[in-house]
Amino acid sequence: MELQVPSTQLHGNRHNALIATLFLVLGIAGGMGVYAAFHWTAAARARKLKNPVQATNSSIAAGMQIYENRCSRCHGKNGDGQGEKAGELSVAPADFTDAHHISRTTDGELYWEITKGRSPMPAFETRLTDVERWEAVDYIRTFAAKSPTTPGQAPAPGKP
Ligand code: HEC
Fold this sequence. Notes:
With 160 residues, the chain is mostly helical. Helices cover 59% and strands 0% of the residues. The chain has a domain at 57-146: Cytochrome Bc1 Complex, Chain D, domain 2, CATH 1.10.760. Bound molecules: heme C.
């Protein structure tokens, strides 16, 4: 008789632990789903963002200042992803001279990535103003245009 008490208690505890684990797993999966859905729609919206800062000599010059102060230590002075810190990072910094990749990326996406960051790259949402982030986009675009490996490559006609 007395033995049955601890035994049911044990059973109950195991049962509770199982349910708790189940909820934990469901919670994590649900959270990931919500995060992915949010992230996806936000990124899809970002793709269509219009760049309000037209690429002009002055916006590109401003972007260059920002880039050299904040970005070149990872992305490299020439935008090739070979900055002096690149070797220490867990992920290689993006290579902006890769004209093929960059031509398929919209200004809005570049802006979004600069705004939100992408570990190990920090977010610049609070470090740079909106206009400064768009100027950085204008400047980044100049690397692919100068890239010697893909002379004269332009985005495919008819692409959005
Ligand atoms: C600490 C190093 C570091 C700094 C500083 C940094 N980045 Fe990055 N950046 C990275 C890494 C690493 C990636 C690639 C992340 C990935 O692929 O997940 C990246 C990716 C990007 C991308 C995405 C490119 C693509 O493939 O679509 C953009 C745009 C970008 N960086 C712009 C900038 C700009 C502009 C600055 C300065 C304002 C900057 N980064 C500063 C490390 C850095």
